[in-house]
Design goal:
Elements lengths: L9 E10 L4 E3 H5 L6 H8 L3 E3 L4 H16 L8 E5 L10 H8 L5 E5 L5 H14 L4 E9 L9 H4 L4 E11 L5 E8 L7 E2 L7 E2 L1 H23 L6 E6 L4 H11 L10 H4 L6 H11 L8 E8 L3 E8 L3
Parallel strand pairs: 4-5, 4-6, 11-12
Antiparallel strand pairs: 1-7, 2-3, 6-7, 8-13, 9-10, 12-13
Helix pairs in contact: 3-4, 7-8
Bound molecules: acetyl coenzyme *A (ACO).
Amino acid sequence: MPQIPGNAVGARFTGWGRALPPKVLTNHDLEGMFETSDQWIRERTGIERRHVGGTTAGLSIESGGLALGMAGVDPLDIDALVLSTSTPDRTVPATSATVQHGLGLKCGAFDVNAACSGFVYATVVAHGLIAMGARKVLLIGTDTLSRITDWDDRNTAILFADGSGAAVLEATDGPGQLLGWDIDSDGSAEELLFCEVGGTIHMDGKEVFRRAVRIMVDSAKKSMAIAGVTADDIALVVPHQANIRIISAACDRLGVPMERAAVCIHETGNTSSASIPLALFEAADQGRLSAGDLVLLVGFGAGMTAASVIIRWGV
Ligand code: ACO
């Protein structure tokens, strides 16, 4: 397990932003599109409505601009842009190039694709850049899954949606916030959830569900072991917002009560790379986090990937 060197340069989030497209699709709207019901979707997934529309670059520029504004950072002072997405606007160039220009940044920019674990992967990568000398990194998680969803397939169309969350990560003189991290991938499970270039998402929902709980819990336990903390020490768990039953089962197995989980799935659906930053920064905006709180971010996704980090909030 990778240990964080004691002398690694520290970093912390100094500003953040969230963006959701204005168009809302409720469960009742879906009732008119295929055979389903609001009650079934609520009970089986926890989703009540979702936001759809926009582009990955457009939503990223919105959330990224809010994060820069909150941090009070000049776009010219950003050393790198890391954009987590599995729904780029173009195959080439990376959507981060469009976002870099749109935000007036003058720095290296690249996309990370680890499906719904992407924002956690990108968080690890951004801390790595800080450890290698970058001082300010803009970190964004955005997906526009509505563009690759088959709107006639009730197995997937009830779940997926669009959104974006962003943060400025700045180097600090102190020890910083990242206490433990884990990134996992099992490519042998690729066929459980995939989308061909130009196609729509295919998913074996039952098998994804079964594995999701296990791999989230395994990853979270690895990060907690590296950080030297237990579930009792975690003030807030921010799980990937895929299904409320997955969140509940994972929290149960981790020994963290649901009151300590950040949940926004009822409003957002599954926004892949955006889901963890949307839930995290909503919790922060609601005043649910205090300086020094330990936060567990944990995701899973196509690949199948899983990833987690333990961060000490606001230090
Ligand atoms: N509305 C009404 N009925 C439905 C619907 C629907 N939208 N979908 C399925 N059903 C029916 C089925 O046909 C089935 O009927 P039957 O018993 O007569 O055969 C019944 O409801 C139960 O279906 P299941 O597939 O067993 O339903 P389940 O409880 O497993 O829920 C779901 C399905 C929501 C897809 C669930 O399996 C799930 O959330 N899986 C995980 C998916 C996920 O997280 N994917 C994202 C991964 S992250 C990423 O990288 C994008």
